[in-house]
Amino acid sequence: MTKDLLYRLIWLSRPLMQAAEAAVDRGLAGTGLTVRTRAVLEILHDFGDATVPEIAHRLEINRQYVQTMVNETLASELTVRRANPRHRASPLIGLTATGRETIAAVLAAERKLVGDLAQSFDDAEVATALDVVQRLTEALRPLGRERPA
Amino acid sequence: MTKDLLYRLIWLSRPLMQAAEAAVDRGLAGTGLTVRTRAVLEILHDFGDATVPEIAHRLEINRQYVQTMVNETLASELTVRRANPRHRASPLIGLTATGRETIAAVLAAERKLVGDLAQSFDDAEVATALDVVQRLTEALRPLGRERPA
DNA sequence: TCATATTGACAAGTTACATGTCACTATGAC
DNA sequence: GTCATAGTGACATGTAACTTGTCAATATGA
User: B104 and B52, same structural domain?
Assistant: First the structure.
């Protein structure tokens, strides 16, 4: 029955996430990054300079916490503040040369590992899995809200 | 490319888990349970009486934390201590009538919701997704360990 | 019987967040 | 321009879900 399979799939999300984040964390050893500062740098790497609230929106966590993560990356000179023409009080955060090299190296290493894993899977099944998981996530989301829609 | 799809699938595990746990949490409103005490009761419901270390092993978290969760369920009389013939100092934890009714109601409600969701999916795609996610989790697990195997 | 392991209880520490407040700064309607 | 309203950085505090360490009581097995 689909119901039971779906139930098992839902509860597999936690082990998958834990395994994934542990693997990422291990890949971060020696870089001085944490899983969360890695996430900030990845946003800047993928989308270019952004303000703290913009990064927070992308990461779907609140701006106050992102602020502390960004402050850490500023302190370790992985990022810098740049003048924001659109808002004088809210500078754009951008990668420094070091920051760019660091995150690029991390992402490249991760992609290499995933490339190795990918050999055990074929395109069609992964595409199906991705589609199912995406639809499932969207279907579950409203159920967690105050007033489920 | 399979690699990119796989990468996206890996990073979807967190949103899926968050959506799933938020939905579970919402279903717990009014029962006095938390996501974690629910997990303890579910183990007892599915596998029968168990000691604290046994529950911890099933949940893959440490016994000290499980002990505090179990103590909460004992305090709210959802569970009771029963003599353990195999170990005098480590009682078996079992559901009370109230505990059994509570967890049965919660699980039934969850299964009903999943049943509704299941109508948007077909058996084959969910089976494929489950298989991919299981294999992916097992493949990622060793990468997070000290000495990746 | 005696070394070793298991268990419950308790204390602390940690991580990854959320929430609330303040002062400052923009922005847009007028 | 002016003024209500919203966005922002900084800071403080709170919280859930853990981990780690320790101790004394108790088992277990050679």
Answer: yes
In strand D, the nucleotides that come within 7 Å of a protein beta carbon are: 7-12, 16-22, 25-28
* pLDDT tens digits, one per residue of B104-136: 999 999 999 999 999 999 999 999 999 999 999
Q: What is the pLDDT of residue A98?
A: 95
DSSP letters for A66-109: HHHHHHHHHHTTSEEEE--TT-TTSPEEEE-HHHHHHHHHHHHH
Strand pairing partners for A79?
A95
Q: Is residue A58 part of a domain?
A: yes
**Residue B76, domain extent:** 21-118
CB proximity B20 to A under 8 Å: yes
A58-82 pLDDT per residue, tens: 999 999 999 999 999 999 999 999 9
Chain A: nearest CA to B46, how far in angstroms? 14
